[in-house]
Structures are given as C-alpha cells and as structure tokens.
Amino acid sequence: MSMILSQTREQRGRIDLRGIIPERLSELDLSAIEQLPITADNQSVPLSEFFSVRGNPSDDLTIVPGNNRLDYIGCLMKTGTITLLGDAGNHAGLEMQGGKLLIKGNSGDYTGSAIQGGEIIVQGDAGDSVGAPGAGMIRGQNGGAIHVKGRAGHRAGECQRRGLLIIEGNVGDLAGYRMIAGTLYIGGSTGIHTGLGMRRGTILLHQHASILPVTMNHSGSLPLTMLSLVNNLLRYYLTDNAPTISPDHHVTRYVGDLACGGMGEIIILQ
Q1: What is the arithmetic mean of pLDDT over 194-214?
Q2: Where a domain ends, among 71, 102, 121?
Q3: How many CA atoms lie within 13 A of 66 on its CB side?
Q4: Cα–Cα distance between 23 and 74 in angstroms, integer?
Q5: Based on the domain organization, do 253 and 193 belong to the same domain?
Q6: Domain boundary among 71, 88, 119
Q7: Burial level of 214, CB count in 10 A (0-12/13-18/19+)?
Q8: How many CB atoms lie under 10 A from the CB of residue 14?
Q9: Judgement on whether residues 239 and 137 belong to the same structural domain of the protein
Q10: What is the pLDDT of residues 91-124, one digit of tens each?
Q11: What's the structural domain count of the chain?
Q12: Same domain as 120, residue 233
C-alpha cells in the first residue's frame, strides 16, 4: 500500500508542501512524517495539522487535496511517484530532477518550472508559465517531460533549454518565448507572439498559428525526416491523438527569431 496524505481541514491562504517528497518520506516512520514542518497560512506547522497520514512509507505517495491551494507539490523530487487526486496549486514540480508527478486535475501557474528531469502529467488544464523560469531564474525547463492534456495559459515553454513539453489544448500568448532549445508541441490554437525571441529549439503546431512574429522567416513546405524521431515521442504520450506524420509528409516551416539571430524553428504539421 502506498502512503496517503489526505487534507483534513481548509486553510485560509495557501500551503507550501516543499520537502514532502517520496525519497524523504520513505526513510521515516509515520509519527516522524506527521511532525514534518510545512508552511500553512505563512506559519510553520507540523504536517498533521492539516493532513492525515496513513499507509506504508514508500516511494509511492498519494495526496488528496481539500482545495487547489497546495503549492510546490513535488518540488525538487528525484525519485518515486506522487499522485495528486485533485487540483494542484502553483509551482507543482518546481525543479524536479526525476520521478513522476501525476496531477489528476488542473494545476496552477509555473507547473514544472525549471524542471530538470522526470515526468509531469496534468490531466486537466494548467495556468500560466508552464515550464518557465520563476523569479530570479534564468532558464526554464532543462530536461524531462511535461504533458498537459488540457489547455495552458500564457508564456508556456518560456526559456525552455531541453526536454519535451506537450500541451494538447489551446495556449495563450508568448508560447515558446525566448526558447533556447528543446521541443514544444501544441495541439490546439495559440495566442500571439508564438516563438518570439527564440534562439534554437523546435515548436510543433498541430494547426497554424493565428499570428506569428514578423521576424520568423517562412522557409517553405517540405518533408523533414527528423520528424520521425519526434513522432515516436508524440505517439507515446498522445497515443490515438498523435498527429499523423509520414516520411514524405510535407510541413510548413518557419525559422527565427531573426531579430535575435535565432535559428529555432516553428513547424506547422497540418
């Protein structure tokens, strides 16, 4: 049986769950876990103040939230699995290095911010700045995979350096803003300024963007053999919803952002 943390009462503000990760909990007994400090309503309190703890300490952790104001779930996680049976707050999976975070609901802003490894799956929608750098950070997603099955807000994939970011639904403005490298796939519609300031990396759009920066250079319609490699990853995550990409499939390609000497690419799959 996995370990289960269930929120037992509401809080006025937010709860910071930094440090409540599988590799730490698996080494403690239940009484010690209950006394771990968390921040709730800007005060340090023991975990048992807001959560019941049951099950066996292991690298498999289930969290049952009482609302969508639990922040920093899975922050700095290296191993194991966290399953959240509801909505997450902000900064879920911040700087994750490994393991898996499964959110069976929606997530707030900065989901997967600066993730370095591991896997985050959001079965609902995500807020602004998925994978983006937080305050004082330089780089966004630097590895791993983030998969949002619903929509996402503005600035998804900002400063992405490595890794794979998949958003099946619509996104807001500035997707892939200042992108450095890595792969961003968007299955729905996009807002304005997609790819603005990108230097390298690949943005895959299932449908044509409404407005692209004028500094993205259209380089024609052509087949790209490299897409067969990306196609395998998309099929793994998207299964039946993956786009059909054959070796002779022609796509529309844009290169830029030329305003900053960029050599990134936006590929329209349809």
Answers
A1: 92
A2: 71
A3: 14
A4: 11
A5: yes
A6: 71
A7: exposed
A8: 19
A9: yes
A10: 999 999 999 999 999 999 999 999 999 999 999 9
A11: 2
A12: yes
pTM, 2 dp: 0.95
Same domain, 19 and 99: no
Q: Residue 260 carries which side chain, given as an amino acid letter?
A: C
Instruction: Write out the chain in H/E/C secondary structure.
Output: CCEEEEECCCCCCCEECCCCCHHHHCCCCHHHHHCCEEEECCEEEEHHHCEEEECCCCCEEEEECCCCCEECCCCCCCCCEEEECCCCCCCCCCCCCCCEEEECCCCCCCCCCCCCCCEEEECCCCCCCCCCCCCCCCCCCEEEEEEECCCCCCCCCCCCCEEEEEECCCCCCCCCCCCCCCEEEECCCCCCCCCCCCCCCEEEECCCCCCCCCCCEEEEEEECCCHHHHHHHHHHHHHHHCCCCCCCCEEEEEEECHHHCCCEEEEECC
Extract the tokens encoding 36.
């771990």
Cα 135 from Cα 42, distance rounded (Å) = 19
